[in-house]
Amino acid sequence: MHDHWLADRTRLIEVSGIRKVFDLAAKLTDPVNLSIGMPDFDVPAPIKTAAHAAIDRGCNGYTITQGIPELRAKIQTDLRQRYPHPERELIITSGTSGGLVLALLATVNPGDEVIVFDPYFVMYPHYVTLAGGKTVLVNTYPDFRIDVNKVREALTAKTKAIIVNSPANPTGVVHGRDCLRDLALLAREKDILLISDEVYRVFCYDEEFSSPAEFQEDVLVVDGFSKAYGMTGWRLGFCHGPRRLIDEMIKLQQGTFVCAPSMVQHAGIVALDTNVSQHVTDYRRKRDRLVEGLQDRYDFARPGGAFYLFPRAPWGTGSEFVARAIQNNLLIIPGGSFSSRDSHFRISYAASGATLERGLEILQRLARR
């Protein structure tokens, strides 16, 4: 293989720092793993049964690109109750990531700018790069709250889209209703697409979930089944937003992912009727335990959702602290994977209670250096 065969974009996209931690992890025996951003509960039994049944029924071929009618109708019913937008159209995607990729490919021209809040989900800048765009970071340290005035200042004639994520990965912050309203209204005023990544929607612990789509009809919402139902490897997501945009995303999906996995779409119908509130309650308790166990020794914004905590390293850089943690058999992710700063680290509390206690003990010890 010759290097000159490779496209420039391959050099602009790095292997995720999270993968590097996984590689280090492979060398450890019985590590305390607080690194993985996926639920530690299994897919609920009725959803598994529905997938098996779909396979046995022969639902194994391609589906129509935008998704099977039964699943789309079920999601649409819910959307009509929540959003009074007659033009809000829906596409079923191959995971939430698949939806984000399609959205950016459908909207970003080479050189267009996309605003992303720092810290950010590790892949946002790479998706923007893939579409030929340029990521413009808006800083949210130290409390990870969005200052809409800073967003306004970051806008240029080339700004095409803004990506917001609430509840957020890696910080666990839930953006308030007023903040999301102001962001939605700014996007409308400037005629910029607001993309709202809502994959952690069910994991809101202290307040009701709010979507910026409540405040204007042109917000594109990206959502999925991975986090709420433990279906991370099943690759089932969906997007809803302005019909004109969704139509183009359907066209692009046809030529790339083709469709979301067929048997998983059938299982998705059952997933929507599955109550996961017990898991949400369980994760709220884990959040409380972690906050209580670390608040005296670490500096962090109390997370209101998702299953992450993003503390400042008590000494050294985020990377140095994480390297020491790994030497002590604890897997966490350096903040530099999610940020232009290397000052923090991410803990995922999607883990068993016993793992969490072991992790707390190591973190309390490491804080004292």
Structural description of this entry:
This protein has helices at 8-12, 17-25, 45-57, 69-82, 95-107, 124-130, 148-154, 177-190, 226-229, 243-254, 262-271, 277-294, 318-327, 353-366, and strands at 32-33, 88-93, 113-118, 134-139, 159-165, 193-197, 220-224, 237-242, 308-309, 330-331, 333-334, 345-348. With 369 residues, it is α/β, with parallel strands linked by helices. It folds into 2 domains: 3-43 and 276-366, Alpha-Beta Complex (Aspartate Aminotransferase, domain 1), CATH 3.90.1150.10; 61-271, Aspartate Aminotransferase, domain 2 (3-Layer(aba) Sandwich). Strands 2-8-7-6-5-3-4 form a 7-stranded mixed sheet, with helices on both faces. Strand 3, helix 6 and strand 4 form a beta-alpha-beta unit. Helix 3 (45-57) runs antiparallel to helix 11, helix 5 (95-107) packs across helix 6 (124-130) and helix 12 packs parallel to helix 14 (353-366). The N and C termini lie far apart (46 Å).
Largest sheet: number of strands, sense, barrel closure: 7 strands, mixed
- Estimate nothing, just give the exact number of structural domains: 2
Supply the helix-strand structural class. Answer: alpha/beta
CATH architecture of the largest domain: 3-Layer(aba) Sandwich
Low-confidence stretches: none
Query: N-to-C terminal Cα separation, in Å?
Result: 46 Å
CATH class of the largest domain: Alpha Beta
* Overall spatial form: globular
Helix content: 40-55%
CATH homologous superfamily of the largest domain - what is it? Type I PLP-dependent aspartate aminotransferase-like (Major domain)
Individual helix count: 14
Percentage of residues in DSSP E strands: 5-15%
Mean pLDDT: 94
**What is the CATH topology assignment of the largest domain?**
Aspartate Aminotransferase, domain 2
Overall number of strands: 12
Radius of gyration, in Å, reads: 20 Å
**Order of SSEs:** HHEHHEHEHEHEHEEHEHHHEHEEEH
